[in-house]
Every structure is written in C-alpha cells, then in structure tokens.
Amino acid sequence: MALPSPPYLGEEDGNDNKDSRSQTLLAKLKEKAKERQKHCGSESTPSEENTTPIDLKKKRKMQVVGSSDNVKESDQDEDVIQKKKKKSAVRQQTGELNFCLHAEKLQALKIVVSDIQTPATGGKDMSKDQVKDSPQTPEKSAATGFPVLGRFSKKNILKVNRVLPQWLAKPDLIHQNIKDNLHPLSEVPLLCAHLLKKLQSNHIQHLFPVQAEVIPAILESSHHGLLMGPGGHRPRDICVSAPTGSGKTLTFVLPVIQALMQRVVCEVRALAVLPTKELAQQVWKVFSTYADGTQLKVVMVAGHKSLAAEEASLSEVRGGQRRSLADIVVATPGRLVDHINKNSSLCLEHLRFLIIDEADRMIDSMHQSWLSQLVKAHPKSKTPLRQMFNEKMF
Ligand SMILES: Nc1ncnc2c1ncn2[C@@H]1O[C@H](COP(=O)(O)OP(=O)(O)OP(=O)(O)O)[C@@H](O)[C@H]1O
C-alpha cells in the first residue's frame, strides 16, 4: 500500500513552517534563559556578598560552562548574549565590591595617619612647643601599639669655642715688607764674628726681618748650653711661618752653626729634614758654606749616593769604636728611615736640633712615619714627645 504523499503546499508554505519552528524554539530558549537568570540571581545574591571579585568571576565561569552543557550548539548566539548580560551584571557587582574594599582600605589608612599625627593628643594637632618638649624616645601609638618614629625633639647644640695654644693664638708678628725692614748686621745681637765675616763675604750686609727676629731668639736660648734655655727651662720650640724668599734658610743655619761650632766631640747634633732631594741639596749647600772654616761636618743623606756610601759618610770604626763623621745631617724622610732601620751608623743619641723645613709638605710624607721612627731611634723615646722636641723646629 502506497503511502499518501503529502499535498504540495508550495515553497512558501515550507518556509513558513521552518520559520514557525525556529520561532517556537527561540521562544523556548528565551524562557529557559529567563528561568536560568532568575535561578542564578536568587542563588548568587546572598553568597556574592561574602566572596571576592575573583571568586565571583570563577563562579560565573563555572555557571556558564555548566549551562553550556545543557544548551545545544544552535543556542550559542543566545548564550553569548546571556553571557554578556551576566558579565555586565558581575562587573557592576564587583565594582561595588571594589569600591567597598577601597573604602575599607582608606578607612584603615585614615586610622594609621591619624595615629601618627596625634598619638598623645587624642586626635588634635600638636603645637610646635609641644613637639619641642616631647621626649627623645619614640612613643608607642595608642591605637596600633607600634612605636612612632621620627618624633625627636630639637636640642640646642652648644657652640664650641675653638681654643688655640698661646703660641698660635698670639704669635710674634714680623714685618712683611723686607726692603723697608732690613736690619744692619752690626745691630744684630749675639751673632759671632766668624758668621758676620761669612755673611759679609757672601755680600750680605743686612738681615731680613724674619732673620733679625728669630736668629737672636735661638742664640739666646742656647747661650747657656744646648741642654738648658733661659732660667734653667728647656729650650723653646720655634715655629716659623714666612713667605717664600724671606730668608728662612739662613734663619736656622746661622744659629745652629754658632751653637755647635764650639763642640769638642763630633756627634750628630742637628738634623734637617726636607721633603725632596733637591731641597735637601740646597740646604746642605748653605750649611756647608757657613760651616766652612769651622770644625763642623755637614753630611747629606738624600739618596744622591748609595746607602752604603751614605753610611760610610756618617760614621767610621776606629780602634774598634764607632766615631761619628757628621755634626749636621741634612736628610729626606725616606733615606732617614732607611738609615734608622738598616744600620746603626746614624746615631741620634746627641741630637739637639731638629729642623723640619717645608713643614706643610712634610705633613704629606708623614705616611712614611719618619717622625715616629726618629722618636724611637732617639734614646729619650720613653719620655714624652715634647721633650724630644726640645730642639728648634722651623
Ligand atoms: N739677609 C739677606 N740678604 C740678602 N740676601 C739674602 C738674605 N737672606 C737670604 N738671602 C737670599 O735670599 C734668597 C732666598 O732665601 P731663602 O732660600 O733662605 O728663602 P726661603 O724663605 O727659605 O725660601 P723658600 O721658602 O723658597 O725656601 C737666597 O738666594 C738667599 O741667598
């Protein structure tokens, strides 16, 4: 039996059927979606209050995934619309939550800030006077219990008055103008005939101001011997500060030679230390010039010769006994330390005059610790340093 074929309704009728079917399907889906929305809304509302935005997102995602299992592929468009709607709802909710969280944070910050500003005044600002009077140690915040840092009071610092020693605070001032303050040799007291003659033979008729001031002072202090100054006191140390070319070299050369020229036994009694070999050579030359005609011997140890040659010029051994060959030694710091450390030919037992020329530059070479080595080499090293400096210092 043949089945009755459906009546031909034309192409338009077929299309209508399809449309009506899809419309009904769409209507169903919409209903489902509405139900789901209602369902989701009623479920999520109470719990979302206690969840973080991240949890909410996860939840939404789970729901979306769960719902997609039940929906057919043809429903994807509708699903996307629903997702967007949900997302916007979630964003709105999370925005509110974020706002709430921010507000809470701000509140917390406000509490902390107010603690810092007003720990002890119950929220009121402290006046400047109160801050000044506040204790030195940091207080603990009443609200947090943490110590509040940075609240140290200002203390008036006592002004320190610099006190210079008398010899620096009240120095003997010497005229700067050399030409208008020349002193004829005949007027200079205590200068011996030998040196006057030597000066004249070197075409010097006048002494410069610094020379006229310092030479008599040194001669006076050594007038009663090398160990004792005026009144039985130890000879004074002397510090001279004068410009270049003012004649400082003769200022110490002349009195040292005059003080030593009557010596009986040759021993190193004067030591001049200079920063460079060239300066040592200049000073050695001046010493040699004015020591000429006396029995004084001037020796230079500045590295211009080998250490052994310098050693030989300092002393010799005769009859099993060491004999000094130098009364006045002119040295550079480096070589001086070498001789002190490496051999015993430099004996400083009888040293009476220590001359530190170019003292400002010599401070730079103090890293060689030549001065402390010198003090150690001196037999009076166990006595205080100032006694070591009984000699004159320029
Ligand atoms: N009374 C004097 N009359 C004439 N000339 C002098 C006199 N005293 C020193 N001179 C000469 O003046 C020059 C400078 O002297 P000197 O080298 O002693 O100065 P200084 O103060 O030691 O200088 P610097 O700080 O550069 O060593 C030298 O040529 C020296 O011969």
UniProtKB/TrEMBL annotation:
| Region named Disordered | 1-87, 119-144
Which Pfam families does the entry mention? DEAD (PF00270)
Domain Helicase ATP-binding intervals: 229-394
- The EC designation for this entry is 3.6.4.13
InterPro entries (alphabetical): DEAD/DEAH_box_helicase_dom, Helicase_ATP-bd, P-loop_NTPase, RNA-helicase_DEAD-box_CS
Q: Does the keyword Zinc-finger apply?
A: no
Q: Which reaction(s) does its UniProt entry say it catalyses?
A: ATP + H2O = ADP + phosphate + H(+)
Instruction: List, in alphabetical order, the Gene Ontology terms for molecular function in this entry.
Output: ATP binding; hydrolase activity; RNA binding; RNA helicase activity
Tell me the superkingdom of the source.
Eukaryota
Q: Which intervals carry biased composition (Polar residues)?
A: 42-53
- Where in the sequence does UniProt note compositional bias of the Basic and acidic residues kind? 28-41
Q: Is ATP-binding one of the keywords? A: yes
**UniProt keyword terms in alphabetical order:** ATP-binding, Helicase, Hydrolase, Nucleotide-binding, RNA-binding
Per the similarity annotation, which family is this?
Belongs to the DEAD box helicase family.
Q: What is known of its domains?
A: The Q motif is unique to and characteristic of the DEAD box family of RNA helicases and controls ATP binding and hydrolysis.
- Explain the purpose of this protein: RNA helicase.
Protein name as catalogued: ATP-dependent RNA helicase
Provide the taxonomic classification.
Eukaryota, Metazoa, Chordata, Craniata, Vertebrata
